[in-house]
Amino acid sequence: MHPRLTELDWAATRIGEISLRRRLEPLTRTEVYEVKLGDEYLMSSMFTVAEEELSRLTLAALPDAPLDAVVGGLGLGYTARTALTDDRVRSLTVVEALAPVIDWHRRELLPEAGTLTTDPRTTLLEGDFFALLRDGTGFDPAAPDRRFDAILLDIDHSPVNVLDATHADLYTATGLARLAGRLRPGGAFGLWSDDAPDESFLALLRQGFATATAHVVTFANPLTGGTSANTVYVATVAAE
């Protein structure tokens, strides 16, 4: 008999106890993988549409040319793996602050993890996305000044509901300008949010980027029998 719930891994981190669980969802009769931080649910393989759309919508805003991309937040890997399905992506750097999350993928505790870890385009970088941006270290240890065509971010719940207080400065005019400076001309920034579109945040994006759009992504929710929605913000810098 399939166990109803299995804890695949657990670790203490600087932001709390993180765990990876696999369970059988009785409503859909499927295996579900979940990440918890303490008692808080961070992500679930039941709901991945918006994470995948984060890659698709952001990359769709870019020209038909070879692309270098960064994903902030590895999680269950859906955003990163979707980015790799775009043949234009020639390099993908995934920045993850928590070593256990990287380890889950390298040990292939998650389905399709090998798709990401064995792809020669992928670099898994252990580091704090926000600190690397703030202190000027950047997302390539060998080239601190390197810029990218796309930066995709899925770490916080929303611009106003952050996992750690040190993240909040990104969602300001100064922080967003700093991020825009890491993009090449014509580059795109994509952000996942659990909240509805926030007009005040869109206004901030439009201060520092040439364009900014909020996409509402809807998906079926078998737990409620209805639909749920997330938001994907896509902002682009001016082309030369």
Question: What's a quick, concise take on this entry?
Answer:
With 240 residues, the protein is an alpha/beta fold. Helix content is 23%, strand content 38%. The chain is built from 7 helices and 11 strands.
Explain the overall architecture.
The protein is 23% helix and 38% strand. The chain has a single domain, classed as Rossmann fold (3-Layer(aba) Sandwich). The chain has helices at 49-60, 78-84, 99-106, 113-117, 129-134, 173-180, 199-208, and strands spanning 5-13, 16-25, 30-37, 40-44, 67-72, 89-96, 122-126, 148-153, 183-193, 211-221, 226-236. It has 240 residues and is α/β, with parallel strands linked by helices. Helix 1 (49-60) packs parallel to helix 2 and helix 6 packs across helix 7. Strands 7-6-5-8-9-11-10 form a 7-stranded mixed β-sheet. A 4-stranded antiparallel β-sheet has the order 1-2-3-4, with no helix packed on it.
Report how far the terminal alpha carbons are from each other.
60 Å
CATH superfamily: Vaccinia Virus protein VP39
Largest beta sheet: what is the strand line-up? 7-6-5-8-9-11-10
For the biggest sheet, the summary is:
7 strands, mixed
CATH C-level class:
Alpha Beta
Query: Average pLDDT value?
Result: 94
The secondary-structure class comes to: alpha/beta
Q: How many structural domains can be distinguished in the coordinates? A: 1
Strand content is 35-45%
Let me know the number of strands.
11
What's the CATH architecture name?
A: 3-Layer(aba) Sandwich
Quaternary structure of the protein: single chain
Output the CATH topology. Answer: Rossmann fold
Query: What does the overall shape look like?
Result: globular
Computed Rg: 17 Å
Helix content: 10-25%
Poorly predicted parts: none
Tally the helices.
7
